[in-house]
């Protein structure tokens, strides 16, 4: 883009346009084009890139659906070898708003949730990066890796001490909870 001064203090902008978009840009444009012919939002583009990267890496199985509340992903995570969760597979549900990645997704375990000191029986997860510690630089795969790391470092397979009272009194959205991140050992 080049700018030059026009008459009477007006800035005139001229644009250099490439005749053919880069192949990656063409592929992204075709992936993000919606039925109405409009381009997808930044959030949707980011999610498409993340999903493509995750499928290419092959570490996690991802299923997506569109809901009135936003995009929802279901990600299968497998317990690491030589841990309490070896051989077990759990499903995480990610719900994304249009503000993603500026705003963290809502992340919960679907039932049955793993029995872990930082995972409540309703699937809510006490992990700082899902709340106050969120950064737009984080991605779905890095969240999944953090959760797997948390599972792998468990010293015992037991529920949180306050599980029953929390589950009885909490909101259905874990982001509505004011979490206290003080316990780094499990």
UniProtKB/TrEMBL annotation:
* Residue ranges of domain UBC core in the record: 42-186
Q: Name one Pfam family in it.
A: UQ_con
UniProt cross-references to SMART domains, sorted A to Z = UBCc
The record's annotation in CDD domains points to: UBCc_UBE2W
Fetch the PANTHER family from UniProt. UBIQUITIN-CONJUGATING ENZYME E2
The entry's protein name is UBC core domain-containing protein
